[in-house]
Design goal:
The structure is a homodimer.
Chain A: E1 20-25, E2 37-42, E3 47-52, H1 60-68, E4 77-85, H2 91-109, E5 116-123, H3 130-134, H4 137-142, H5 149-155, E6 164-172, E7 175-184, E8 197-202, H6 208-221, E9 226-227, E10 237-242, H7 254-273, E11 281-289, H8 292-304, H9 306-313, H10 319-328, E12 339-342, E13 345-349, E14 352-353, H11 359-365, E15 370-376, E16 382-389, H12 393-401
Parallel strand pairs in A: 4-5, 8-10, 9-16, 11-15
Antiparallel strand pairs in A: 1-2, 2-4, 3-10, 6-7, 7-8, 11-16, 12-13, 12-15, 13-14
């Protein structure tokens, strides 16, 4: 698998987060000759927040995490992730696997079982060979290290073509507060039901409930605003852990929220940049809608349209397909007030092609690797931005040409 | 362009409909060396019903037709369709073009202008060169023939790989009633915003309002149950014209409604069979949902999922992707009551892979050109059937590789 042309030049140097350690191992769940399990240990006092897929067929680990979110942050906590098998649609056996893994992690790390969170990513409907994972846990626990986050980012990959990390240090009242996050995801769902998983760590001090509210708020404008193929995984998981080790209370702090937003947006964009077969990174910005919800409908209608996405792949300034996507979105729209631009080029306005529209200029613009499609509906103040990629032969090859 | 592998062996022999005549001409709207305009003349007393796209950016001809639907059926009527240009998103100029064309048709045929219906299919946002069409109308009118329906089916094609027709003769109380229809469509929207257009003619006798109700009811379970790429055209049009020439009143007649349903379903299936790049014709049947609306949500979620459609293209019995599509649909579902079958093969039940599931048998089944995906949600009586095709390199090639 070639690395995505949209990948960052390298994995970033991430700040170490006091109170968080990592270890990885090769359990052989499915992949050979690579680490496929990662353990993160969170010191006592760490607030944990999470956002999960809304799928009606969500996996056993997701259901288990959702039950545990409110557990007492005074105790230590742990996160165990395996790649290669999603433990989704595995019935009662899946629940038993989660029980076995979380019990083993609790025993090894000393964290109470209601503070042990897991995620599984990979093929669906196959029993998870959890004994292979359990067999690694004592060793993982003894190998925990503050500097192994990059290894963790690699261990959770499935069909990702590059490991995804983002971090930031923000000075609040004279003290540095650090944030470091990792993610996996390649397409909303990759060939084997690979999934979006995101883990972000910070030494900020914040109550669990306040952290949860902040994370939910930021998730709505970062990870909930990306789409590769409109398909939603059974296992999507975002968790944020705040150890408090910096001693800096960030409750209600705008600088911290801004920094966390940046890290989340960076990771979200990296997931799109690793979209299956992607060759273009596309920002779709919608303004002038009756409501923000309507703006989002239009933005997602454009970002999910196979015809828009194939036009982008073909570097075709086919703004008619954008008109179509606006029309089918279900949002209130007035054809004669609609304007559309590609980058700074106005292609359509007032219900028709812009008078000074140049097909040559628009076609030239479409050759860029990073594109912006702007739509103004002209009937209100609602707005929304989503990010997506193009739809190429690469997507078909990854998802149709090889048996999964 | 190669003919779709899913195309019928040949265009059917369609019954002549008393009171309906056709003519076609090469106006050179966009295509060279082929007919691109068709005129259908409907004798006085013909009831006309129609169903149109709900797009907020619908074309000028669609808006004009919608206004005229209730016009008095005592007078003659006419339908004029051009291919090559959709006259969509063309502002006030588009309205003027419709005015010019309908006026010319009214003058030539003697039908009042409020009984002249038009449709345009092709590229969006380009002014319609309506003078080229107007210049052909007198000649079209003098060439009208009862036997030219096949030529009409060809004239309205854009990127279709085959002309679509379906017909039926049904004996009602000893008298034959005839139905003949044509359609175009290749993908919900083809490269140049090509569109689904359907025209069906019958010599049945039925009041316009009753016909409209029947057509709307049948449309909901035929043309509204097909999807190629989830994209919705600015110009989709279905019209049914009943001349009454048979003298047989079909108001409330179940046999006639059944026959009309068969013709509509046949044409709807032909549109899917000409789906861009299609190599498989897929029936998605959902049962056991809480409501019919929920069943439809699940069926469309499966039928529109790029991951399901690419798996079908790859002849991959990837039922996990069906689980995913059920989960994301938004419909009520209980993972542990869900069952999934491919044809007669139960692949999953009770929240897990079926105990006697054979990957080999399922893979063998996926090699068929006609496939059936069945999902039973196990929580109610709601049901829905939709039809779709696979997502292949052919779709990408048609929509991305060539500039439109």
């Amino acid at each position: 698998m070639n690395i995505s042309p949209l990948a960052p030049a390298q994995f970033p140097d991430l700040p170490e987060i006091a109170g968080v350690t990592f270890a990885t191992a090769a359990a052989g769940v499915k992949y050979k000759d690579r680490d496929d399990v990662m353990l993160a240990y969170l010191a006592p006092g760490t607030a944990v927040a999470g956002v999960f897929t809304r799928s009606a067929t969500r996996s056993a680990p997701v259901l288990d995490c959702q039950e545990k979110l409110g557990s007492d942050p005074a105790a230590a906590a742990a996160i165990l992730v395996n790649s290669g098998n999603s433990n989704a649609f595995t019935g009662g056996r899946g629940v038993s696997s989660v029980q076995a893994v979380t019990q083993a992690v609790a025993t090894a790390t000393g964290a109470p079982i209601d503070r042990v969170f897991t995620a599984s990513t990979g093929v669906i409907g196959e029993p998870l060979p959890h004994n292979r994972i359990v067999a690694q846990i004592a060793e993982l626990n003894s190998a925990l290290s503050a500097t192994a986050i990059k290894d963790a980012a690699h261990a959770i990959m499935t069909t990702d073509t590059f490991a995804k990390g983002a971090g930031m240090t923000v000075n609040i009242n004279g003290t540095d507060v650090k944030i470091a996050g990792i993610a996996k995801g390649s397409g909303m769902i990759a060939p084997d039901m690979a999934t979006m998983l995101v883990y972000i760590f910070t030494d900020a001090k914040i109550a669990q409930r306040d952290l949860q509210q902040m994370v939910s708020r930021l998730n709505a404008k970062t990870f909930n605003c990306i789409t590769v193929d409109s398909d939603t995984s059974t296992s999507d998981t975002l968790m944020v852990a705040a150890t408090g080790a910096s001693g800096v209370d960030v409750t209600g702090d705008a600088d911290f929220e801004h920094a966390l937003n940046s890290v989340m947006q960076d990771l979200a964009h990296q997931v799109v940049r690793d979209g299956e077969g992607a060759t273009k990174f596309v920002t779709v910005g919608v303004t002038g809608a009756q409501t923000d919800a309507d703006a989002r409908k239009v933005a997602l209608s454009i970002a999910n349209s196979p015809l828009v996405k194939t036009a982008i792949a073909g570097e075709d300034a086919n703004w008619g397909r954008v008109v179509m996507a606006v029309g089918k979105s279900g949002a209130a729209a007035d054809r004669d007030k609609l304007s559309i631009r590609f980058g700074d080029i106005t292609v359509a306005e007032n219900g028709w092609r812009a008078p000074n529209y140049s097909e040559d200029a628009a076609s030239e613009y479409m050759k860029n690797q990073e594109l912006e499609i702007g739509v103004d509906l002209g009937i209100g103040d609602g707005q929304s931005t989503v990010w997506t990629c193009d739809l190429t032969h690469g997507y078909i090859s990854i998802n149709a040409d090889y048996r999964s």
